[in-house]
Amino acid sequence: MTFQEQILEGIPSVLPQPKTYETAINHAPKRKEILSAEEKKLALKNALRYFDAKHHAELIPEFKEELEKYGRIYMYRLRPDYRMYARPISDYPGKSEQAKAIMLMIQNNLDYAVAQHPHELITYGGNGAVFQNWAQYRLTMKYLAEMTDEQTLVMYSGHPMGLFPSHKEAPRVVVTNGMVIPNYSKPDDWEKMNALGVSQYGQMTAGSYMYIGPQGIVHGTTITVLNGFRKIKKSPTGGLFVTSGLGGMSGAQPKAGTIAGCVTVCAEVNPKITKIRHEQGWIHEIIEDINKLVDRVQTALANKEVVSIAYLGNVVDVWEKFDEANIPIDLGSDQTSLHNPWAGGYYPIGYTFEESNEMMATDPEKFKEAVQSTLRRHAAAINKHTAKGTYFFDYGNAFLLESSRAGANVMNELPTLGREFKYQSYVQDIMGPMCFDYGFGPFRWVCASGKPEDLAKTDAIACRVLEEMMQSAPEEIQQQMADNIQWIKGAQENKLVVGSQARILYADAEGRIKIAQAFNEAIAKGEIGYIILGRDHHDVSGTDSPYRETSNIYDGSRFTADMAIHNVIGDSFRGATWVSIHNGGGVGWGEVINGGFGMVLDGTKEASRRLESMLFWDVNNGISRRSWAKNEGAIFAIKRAMESQPLLKVTLPNFVDENLL
Q: Which residue numbers delimit the Urocanase N-terminal domain (predicted)?
């Protein structure tokens, strides 16, 4: 069968032969045993719903074995034989170009070069899933290939509920992931519902089909590292950045450190992902001996090298050994997946990678104790360095939150609302006040043609638009503009593409609209193919996350989620091609609500109208909320937006004299 025929087949009437378990692939760890005997029967019934009754006798023992062996029913047998990657949009079967673009993005999320655990349909973060099983993937792709521009596909946590009559202006796909009743948002609730096959953790751009590989987080991390050095009034040259995590998005850290121009040490316990990052060129060297690491870092600092080094081992060893050796750390952070601490997101010291994977499945209580003990030790080592002058920031992965729950010494001795922890979130001191409050966030696009030359043309268009805008930009956003112009000029030489021909830069509403309009005009002239617009959920408006995206909201509303819900509803009727809303994000199940979108530009006047309407709302919704929280940068930005758009009228806050209070 051709690729197009396999897509249109969906779930085959004749079952394919069982697949060999490929040990060379980076697989998800076994999930904990959590279902009762009756619940296991229910999980099997739920999985078998996708198949004709004639196949049930054959599939029951196979699915039962998967559930017992891996803690989930992935339906490996149904994994397609074709290569998984983002093909040119013209390669996909279908009646809707918008639907074809979504198929392209789904396959990009599952590309072996992009996905963390591709056979388990997990894109990043240890549990950020596109689908729960391969039947869902096959059925979704078939629906997308069949749908017209007058239908909408509804997705329930990876399950395609079906195609519904709609209209051309409606989203082609509406996605929800993990939207459970709030009282059932504890980690074990997710484990049970995911094992039953009724809910999934979509992370941010994994389950919303908008991940572009680690490039997205490279850009955000580069901005963070550059501004981290600015905060300590030191040049990155000859400076040292120490962190951990090379899997999924965290693998972007060493690349960002290199772009910023410092020495980066990033610890990782998984040898497979470390090898992948080295092969991709995201790290320069791998060192397994802690003493050799000390010698190498001392040499690099003395010579002011720009180098990224992976330490294959536990990061606690690095913090403790560098303290003992008196190696000064300028910037410190952590980007292990601590939103998922008990299922492979963070590994305890004193155990091998294999021992830890075994323990988390067979003795989860012992594993939890080992993780929490390691977190206490981790925090203690960081505290020694910060006492010497290290600038440590929480990188939004729930490190401080989980450390506090473990009893680590991370709490502020004199806490204030929003400043309960000893160390700040990078959003509180860098991204929030410098970027999000002014409307700057992760605008991204994908060239649907798959042509590198199209990406180069879009880079040039975006650079031209930003340079023109900077000439009249107010002083308050000159630094943001300059950083992004520098980024886009170096994008090609830094070889950031992994998977689809995609790019990211930080832009405000004005920048996003002008760049998108320029793309649409170029498409209309036949200079480039279709463009798929999107963004990370980690943005100005899309996410309500009290310990990350909205951690610099100090009016008491940071635990509310009105903004994220309003954002996705507003995007849906202003022209988005697809919209998504998730529970979980990058900080943990029950800790955040986050939404995203995708939008296809086809060169038409309709696309021009939709992009202007939707992008303006998508950004200014968040600026409005931030201004109401009395954030000065946001007040400046929303006043500027009201001046540019007479139909925008936003309620502004009045300030109270502290002496009166």
A: 84-210
pLDDT tens digits, one per residue of 439-469: 999 999 999 999 999 999 999 999 999 999 9
Q: Which residues pair with 155 in a beta bridge?
A: 160, 175
Domain count, the chain: 3
Residue 206 located in a structural domain: no
Q: Is the pLDDT of residue 193 over 70?
A: yes
Q: 402 and 517 share a domain?
A: no
Residue 203 known to bind ligand? yes
Asked if residue 203 is part of any domain, the answer here is no
pLDDT at position 248: 67
The pLDDT, as a whole number, for residue 459 is: 96
**Cβ neighbours, 10 Å, residue 181:** 7
Q: What is the pLDDT of residue 492?
A: 85
Planar angle of CA 400, 406, 407, nearest 5 degrees:
90
Q: Is 125 annotated as ligand-binding?
A: yes
Q: What is the DSSP string of 398-434?
A: SHHHHHHHTT-S-EEEEEETTEEESS-BHIIIIIHHH
Domain that holds residue 267: 214-409
Answer whether residue 567 shows pLDDT above 80: yes
For residue 252, the number of C-alpha atoms closer than 13 Å in the C-beta half-sphere is 27
Place of tokens 């440590």: 392
Angle between helical axes of 509-524 and 605-628 (0-180°, round to 10):
170
Across residues 562-578, what is the average pLDDT? 97
Hey, how many other C-beta atoms are within 10 angstroms of the C-beta on 281?
12
- Tell me the per-residue pLDDT of 265-299, one tens digit each, with 9 for 90 and over: 999 999 999 998 898 888 999 999 999 999 999 99
Buried b (16+ CB within 10 A) or exposed e, 215-249: bbbbbbbbbbbbbbbeeeeeebebbbbbbbbbbbb
Strands (E) in 199-343, as ranges, are 240-244, 263-268, 285-287, 307-312, 331-332
Residues 595 and 472 in one domain: yes
Residue linked to tokens 């079952």: 15
Q: What is the pLDDT of residues 483-509, one digit of tens each?
A: 999 899 888 888 888 899 999 999 999
How much is the pLDDT for 192? 97
- Which pLDDT score, from 0 to 100, does residue 247 have? 79
- Of 518, 515, 512, residue with least CA distance to 619: 512
| Residues 405, 281 within the same domain | yes
The tokens describing 466, both together, are 């930003």
CATH number of the domain to which 45 belongs: 3.40.1770.10
Same-domain status, 35 and 144:
yes
Residue whose C-alpha is closest to residue 453's, from 403, 527, 538, 560: 527
* pLDDT tens by residue, 380-393: 999 999 999 999 99
Tell which residue, 220, 289, 292, has the closest CA to residue 256.
220
Q: Is 511 annotated as a binding residue?
A: no
The strand pair at 531-535 and 543-544 is best described as unpaired
% of the chain residues with pLDDT over 70: 100
**Four-point Cα dihedral 472, 475, 476, 478, nearest 10:** 70
Would residue 428 count as lying in a domain? Answer: no
pLDDT tens string 216-271:
888 889 999 999 999 999 999 999 999 999 976 667 899 999 999 999 999 999 99
Residue 572 lies in a domain: yes
The answer to whether 274 and 268 have CB atoms below 8 angstroms apart is: yes
Distances (CA, A) of 601 to 409, 522, 523, 619: 50, 10, 8, 19
Task: In whole angstroms, give the CA distance from residue 365 to residue 373.
Answer: 12
Cβ neighbours for 570, distance < 8 A, ≥ 6 positions apart: 614, 617, 618, 621
- Asked if 297 contacts 350 with a C-beta cutoff of 8 angstroms, the reply is no
Torsion angle (degrees, nearest 10) of CA 428, 429, 430, 432: 30
Last residue of a domain, one of 144, 162, 196: 196
Does 586 belong to an annotated binding site?
A: yes
